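Whether sequence alone determines local backbone shape is best considered at the level of individual chains. For completeness, the protein is quoted in full, as a sequence line and a line of structure tokens:
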Amino acid sequence: MVPYYSVTLGDTVFTVPTRYTELVGRGAGAQGMVCDSWGHCVHCADPVYRASGPRRGCAGDSVVRTRHHLYYSVTLGDTVFTVPTRYTELVGRGAGAQGIVCAAYDTVTQQNVAIKKLSRPFQNVTHAKRAYREFKLMKLVNHKNIIGLLNAFTPQRSLEEFQDVYLVMELMDANLCQVIQMDLDHERMSYLLYQMLCGIKHLHLAGIIHRVILGMGYTENVDIWSVGCIMGEMIRGGVLFPGTDHIDQWNKIIEQLGTPSAAFMARLQPTVRNYVENRPRYAGYSFERLFPDILFPSDSNEHNRLKASQARDLLSRMLVIDPERRISVDDALVHPYINVWYDEGEVNAVSATPTSQPRDLLSRMLVIDPERRISVDDALVHPYINVWYDEERCHP
């Protein structure tokens, strides 16, 4: 026989099995009194919080469901991914400085996703700051040209155990390296550049730019240099300035673009300025020589010649060493090579706020017309809710 014990809560005596502890009164309704408690699964002894309402549990226990059973582990290479059961078909995709990435299928939203396991996020203060920065920045942005954060989780169940952070993001069909190797015509290349510029514009609206480079506090135009390097690589089919280190990189740049002006060098830190001034002076090459017509789409009709000229002009404005003379994101977006794609809603998309998702869900719930009101099933997979979604609990 299961042992019971009694606890008085207010004017009511609760007599419950000993598996339930720490009873706290929650109130009364027309049908009875309610309390919360902590319990233990009688089959696996996992602790589980018991609030009002039924819970589906482990095999052999139809009442208690523990968080432990919502996760499973998969080994991909040398890395163990412990993920919610909603994510299936895990396949390793690669590793970077910040973590390991796999592709997966989300059975709740029915879409392919990328899951990133951050590398040792709490190994030291620097790693922790990087993890926090990545998580924070991804929550700040919401634009179709920036990979979005869909979910975040940890399989650990207590602060003492907490050591892993997983980020769930949109999965791309190809990466930029693969795209660059494609045979791109002017239409595709200009549209890719437009998408990059829209994404960068959105980051700037959210107050996100690159950090200090060469000891200088650069403005948003630092990002334009990166886009120019990508554009040049699209045209040439290879890296523009293939330096072996930052010194060799600088030499490669000035050999092609020329030594920057004295006004620019005067703004450098003394140690950097001394190095630059002691290097041989280079006149650089014209962009017609650096990017001749033969590198552009081979069709020699008048339209393509015009587009090649426009592309070269844009590139010459992006690849300017002095950021104060470099074209801005706004001006690049209205450049003749790009502006055919211009859309105000894409260019000036408003950054996401912490209240945007709950407000959206609420607006869909509070619709007077029941035929237009969001359904229970759709509400369960809404971005504000679906992190908690469990198929067995929602559809027993």
The first strand starts at residue 4 and ends at 9. The radius of gyration is 29 Å. Confidence is low (pLDDT under 50) at residues 40-69, 211-217.
